[in-house]
Design goal:
- By secondary structure, this protein is an alpha+beta fold.
- The protein folds into two domains: 128 residues, FAD/NAD(P)-binding domain (3-Layer(bba) Sandwich); 141 residues, no CATH class.
- The protein contains eleven helices and twelve strands.
- The strands form four sheets. It has a five-stranded antiparallel beta sheet. It has a three-stranded antiparallel beta sheet with strand order 3-4-5, with no helix packed on it.
- The protein is globular.
- The model has no long low-confidence stretch (mean pLDDT 94).
- This is Pyridine nucleotide-disulfide oxidoreductase domain-containing protein 2.
Amino acid sequence: LLDQILDLWFESEPLKATLATDAVIGAMASPHTPGSGYVLLHHVMGELEGRRGAWGYVAGGMGALSQAIAQAATARGAHIFAEKAVCHVLLGRDGEAQGVALQDGTEVRSKLVLSNASPQITFLELIPQEQLPKDFVQRIQQVDTCSPVTKINVAVDRLPSFLAAPNARDGQPLPHHQCSIHLNCEDIQLLHQAFTEAAHGHPSSRPMIELCIPSVLDPGLAPPGCHVVSLFTQYTPSMLAGSRSWDEQARNAYADTVFDCIEDYAPGFKASVIGRDILTPPDLERIFGLPGGNIFHGGMSLDQLYFARPAPSYSGYRSPIPGLYLCGSGAHPGGGVMGAAGRNAAQVAIEDFRHL
């Protein structure tokens, strides 16, 4: 269990709880849930510019990373069609992938098809079910995609000033403004209580909050003196108790709870807010195609990792459809901005392509 691992290494409860947030991030799980220790490992493995376990901001926002990948591809002859929804995968006489059909009727022929959509969209929406083994379809249908995440994007007219480290008189950013700021994480029991509430269908009354201010390091994201604040919060159930859906009132009530919590740490925060964008789990699914709103395309629990991701016998990026490969977060080794699934899938596809 995660709490046992942390107890071996640390004495400070706030430090243990802060580390525990990366063990439950994006997961409908408590730090007491068996297997949560792996999720922590998943978030600290690897390195950035030689620093082990480090993370970084992407200048220009996360979309700039996608643009960089796109530019690298087009420089090597790739053609990219944005805003062109795929209707289904084209199949040959023997059931092999032969390209994709777009919703506007265009057909793009190809010897191989790689999908970074979720396993649910790839295999349950883009492929006729009769073309897939029944046990495979059942496995994809049963993947746990439960997500606790509500993302709130905020525009503010000044930097938040925290009681623990008040702003300088000149209002310039301090070192902590350049980091991920964890709130409501004083002890692991707080996180467990927040999870328990959501498990019973109620948004956490004291939610776990990861607050980042990317405009401190990337001033082009906001006008002078203003900032954008990214709030990664949990726990929020996909469906509220009593089978109630997330209407506008429920969204705003939860966001108000989050803002009240921030106000306790940084008085004046609420008065600085110019606008906010609230994305609950159903919003994340509808807008970004994340199944259940899950940022990893499926839970990172031990039963859905390694050889079982996305299904037993299909963890090697190939699928039951010859020529169709899964290369997104639903494939091994899972979610996170690291590119491992895409790189590994590309290597497998290149090897197969040599034999076509």
